[in-house]
Amino acid sequence: ETTDVVKLFTQVFNDFKMIHPDFTFNLDNDIEGNPIVQIYRNHLEQVLIILLDNAVKYSVDRKEIHLSASSTSQAVEFAVQDFGEGISEESAKQVFNRFYRVDKARSRDKGGNGLGLSIAQRLIEEYGGTISLESSVGHGSIFRIQLPIMKHVKKDQ
Ligand code: ATP
Predict the structure, then answer these.
(1) Which domains does the chain have, with CATH numbers?
(2) Which of 88, 116, 112 is CA-nearest to residue 102?
């Protein structure tokens, strides 16, 4: 199964804009043409939803989320950046583990079981991709997904 990832990314972006009108969403797409990525559409959609849900959940004060899409000849990269509470270096090592939650007491009222990111990582790695995190407490987080490109269809074809 292959997916037009830019189209999917834009759709998820539009859905979140509609569902969370209190947030400012930006989309920066630097991808030219249509890179074809071998991933089941629903799986990529689920990963994007997990990252965006988290960005919304953990941004209490500054409600702003930046999405970006870029590509090299080998891979596409999607980034989800928030300006929320951020994650310490110590916790960042563990957020992709099943059932891990940074602050159990505080996170409890936000729902969730600490499964989202472990599912996201498992799915992305299943397709030969990577998922990574860059974060700073009090400043926010950036989650990046990279997926290998199968082929490239030119825009005017
Ligand atoms: P769910 O099972 O519903 O996904 P969850 O959000 O707790 O619940 P994960 O998505 O796996 O589970 O996230 C694990 C933990 O990582 C969270 O509990 C939270 O502490 C932290 N975290 C994840 N994303 C962010 C973010 N964007 N900003 C700050 N902390 C985050």
Answers:
(1) 1-156 (3.30.565.10)
(2) 88
Q: ipTM for the complex?
A: 0.96
Element (H, E) at 43: helix 41-57
Query: Which residues, at least 6 apart from 105, have a Cβ–Cβ distance to it below 8 Å?
Result: none
Number of residues that this document lists for the chain: 157
> How much distance in Å is there from the Cα of 134 to the middle of ligand 1?
14
Q: Which of 50, 95, 132, 144 to mutate to test the pocket of ligand 1 (most atoms within 8 A of CB)?
A: 95
Q: Is the pTM of this model over 0.90?
A: yes
Give the model confidence (pLDDT) of 102-139 as tens digits.
876 555 566 678 899 999 999 999 999 999 999 999 99
